[in-house]
């Protein structure tokens, strides 16, 4: 199942189930409207179906409390920035005000001169949990989406910590939807690619993670309670690089979809 949030005819964001023609749905790409919040409890179909081209997708989730990122979780990415691979997961937190959806602009702030993309798999938590053992990690996963951990690389270096470098508004694109049908094993071996203006920049697999999804959930939930809608960004493959105003960056995760965002200068 693909769960999206969308806006139609200038209304408020609502949840829907995405049905793609490639799945043999028997109709063009569309979204079936539902009532309620899938993260909060049961939902019902309203009977309304809209063409996907006629709605605007927004972030499929607005984390209720936090986005937790994992740094240097691909050895090749750590090496390309001349960093060691950490012995334990290297964590940082993005504010939920950094979250934007597909098609929304990544805003290039004047405080940086070196803005980078970092395409990655994002895990959406489905229930309140604390100290989750890795062999039960699948029980707390609601689904998976695509993330782009936008980073002001020069501020990351100069500040000696990452809150500002990764926390500006618009620095956490998520989307285009959440898939709930992937097993943990399937999600642990997916291709992750990033293009800028159509040129391939990153090409890796989630199987190359230093710490796998289950290990990350165990580690993160060991220090903080995870809430429904919280997001864990699992790290980025090698190939990160700069963005400029006017660029279009697209991150694709196999089996999930493509998240595309333009880059604009802050006015």
Automatic annotation (TrEMBL):
<dbReference type="GO" id="GO:0019752">
    <property type="term" value="P:carboxylic acid metabolic process"/>
</dbReference>
<dbReference type="Pfam" id="PF01557">
    <property type="entry name" value="FAA_hydrolase"/>
</dbReference>
<dbReference type="GO" id="GO:0016853">
    <property type="term" value="F:isomerase activity"/>
</dbReference>
<dbReference type="Pfam" id="PF10370">
    <property type="entry name" value="Rv2993c-like_N"/>
</dbReference>
<protein>
    <recommendedName>
        <fullName>2-hydroxyhepta-2,4-diene-1,7-dioate isomerase</fullName>
    </recommendedName>
</protein>
<dbReference type="InterPro" id="IPR036663">
    <property type="entry name" value="Fumarylacetoacetase_C_sf"/>
</dbReference>
<feature type="domain" description="Rv2993c-like N-terminal">
    <location>
        <begin position="1"/>
        <end position="60"/>
    </location>
</feature>
<dbReference type="GO" id="GO:0046872">
    <property type="term" value="F:metal ion binding"/>
</dbReference>
<feature type="domain" description="Fumarylacetoacetase-like C-terminal">
    <location>
        <begin position="66"/>
        <end position="264"/>
    </location>
</feature>
<dbReference type="GO" id="GO:0018773">
    <property type="term" value="F:acetylpyruvate hydrolase activity"/>
</dbReference>
<keyword id="KW-0479">Metal-binding</keyword>
<dbReference type="InterPro" id="IPR011234">
    <property type="entry name" value="Fumarylacetoacetase-like_C"/>
</dbReference>
<dbReference type="InterPro" id="IPR018833">
    <property type="entry name" value="Rv2993c-like_N"/>
</dbReference>
């Amino acid at each position: 199942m693909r769960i999206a949030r969308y806006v139609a005819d200038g209304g408020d964001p609502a949840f829907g189930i995405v049905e793609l023609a490639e799945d043999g749905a028997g109709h063009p790409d569309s979204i079936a409207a539902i009532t309620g919040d899938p993260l909060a409890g049961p939902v019902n179909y309203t009977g309304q179906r809209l063409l996907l081209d006629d709605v605007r997708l927004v972030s499929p989730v607005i984390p209720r409390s936090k986005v937790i990122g994992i740094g240097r979780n691909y050895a090749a990415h750590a090496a390309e920035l001349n960093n060691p691979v950490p012995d334990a997961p290297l964590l940082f937190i993005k504010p939920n005000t950094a979250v934007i959806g597909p098609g929304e602009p990544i805003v290039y702030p004047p405080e940086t001169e070196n803005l980078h993309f970092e395409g990655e798999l994002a895990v959406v938590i489905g229930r309140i949990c604390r100290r989750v053992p890795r062999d039960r990690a699948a029980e707390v996963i609601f689904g998976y989406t695509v993330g782009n951990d936008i980073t002001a690389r020069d501020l990351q270096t100069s500040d000696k910590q990452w809150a500002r470098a990764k926390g500006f508004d618009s620095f956490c694109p998520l989307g285009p939807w959440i898939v709930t049908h992937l097993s943990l094993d399937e999600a642990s071996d997916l291709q992750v690619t990033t293009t800028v203006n159509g040129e391939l920049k990153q090409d890796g697999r989630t199987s190359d993670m230093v710490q796998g999804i289950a290990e990350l959930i165990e580690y993160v939930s060991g220090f903080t309670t995870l809430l429904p809608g919280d997001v864990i960004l699992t790290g980025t493959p090698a190939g990160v690089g700069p963005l400029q105003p006017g660029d279009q960056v697209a991150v694709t995760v196999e089996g999930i979809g493509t998240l595309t965002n333009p880059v604009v200068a802050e006015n």
